[in-house]
Design goal:
Layout (H helix, E strand, L loop, with lengths): L5 H4 L9 H9 L3 E2 H4 L5 H6 L4 E4 L25 H12 L3 E6 L10 H12 L6 E5 L7 H9 L4 E3 L9 H4 L5 H14 L4 E8 L5 H13 L4 E6 L16 H13 L3 E5 L8 H11 L1
Helix pairs in contact: 5-6, 6-7, 7-9
């Protein structure tokens, strides 16, 4: 593995800021992708009382080479999970809520139902937050995507994660075309919904390949793209091939904007990083 550069070493977890948000999550029996995936920004986001909720349990049916979320055979869905999420959001007074899930290829609808239940419940709050979903690819099925779109999220996010050449090695159960089709479907059927995607660098891709993905995302109707450095969460995941320099992220930002994309790029950027800010910026530009 390449030597950890100074711009990576400077990021420190402020563990003292995590406890109150974690307490509220545990009280509701909820999970956050921030913790399950060991996101390096979790102390910053928790310190600002924001988090990305992980629904449909915390065991994924897929085993992506970069991901630290537990994988295997999930248990049955918790029917009380959507209501618990809504209650927790209400108690925290959140203005922008991000909801994601593990892959649930064991379910006929891929786990779309709980997304819908969460969105419907949040909209019924006295002061409804804006909402963002970060969904699986549903193995190319359009029905689950349509159901979630109909529930009215403000932002629909699906991450491509990496370049086409690396899909077989790091996302063996996914397909690049499935990822693009999700975004195309949202653009075609709900043009008023913000479309968003994200990818990691440091898995063995080239600069030209990343630029190719940005072009594909723009063609698919994507509007916001997050780009961050892959950081090996535990020794069990695939190692980092190289660390991209901050100036290289600036180059990706600049090239993406030439394609009409709102780009959020940097070593510690993740798919839900500055999610509310990105949404508000696009909403104001309409």
């Amino acid at each position: 593995m390449p030597v950890l550069p100074p711009w990576i070493r400077t990021q420190k977890l402020r563990l003292g800021e995590l406890h109150e948000i974690k307490r509220r999550m545990r009280k509701g029996g909820l999970h956050t992708v921030c913790e399950e995936a060991r996101c390096p920004n979790r102390s910053e986001c928790f310190g600002h009382h924001t988090a990305t909720f992980l629904i449909n349990g915390n065991v994924c049916t897929r085993r992506c080479a970069y991901c630290a979320i537990a994988h295997g055979r999930p248990g049955p869905l918790d029917p009380d999970e959507p209501a618990a999420l809504v209650a927790t959001v209400s108690s925290m007074g959140l203005r922008h809520v991000v909801i994601t899930s593990v892959d649930r290829d064991d379910l006929p609808d891929g786990g779309a139902g709980p997304f819908v239940a969460c969105l419907v419940g949040l909209r019924q709050l006295p002061a409804p937050p804006t909402t963002e979903v970060l969904t699986p690819d549903f193995r190319g099925m359009t029905g689950p995507v349509d159901r979630i779109i109909a529930a009215g999220p403000d932002v629909y996010n699906h991450n491509v994660e990496t370049v086409p050449r690396l899909f077989r090695s790091v996302r063996p159960s996914g397909r690049y075309d499935w990822a693009l089709e999700v975004l195309k479907r949202v653009a075609e059927t709900a043009p008023g919904t913000v479309r968003k995607s994200g990818l990691m660098v440091g898995l063995g891709e080239t600069g030209d390949e990343v630029l190719g993905v940005l072009a594909d995302l723009a063609t698919a109707g994507c509007q916001v793209v997050t780009i961050g450095q892959y950081l090996q969460p535990t020794p069990e995941q695939v190692p980092v091939t190289r660390y991209w320099r901050p100036d290289e992220f600036e180059d990706l930002d600049r090239e993406g904007r030439k394609l009409g994309l709102e780009v959020i790029a940097g070593p510690f950027v993740r798919s839900s990083y500055q999610a509310e800010e990105a949404y508000l910026k696009l909403a104001a530009a309409r």
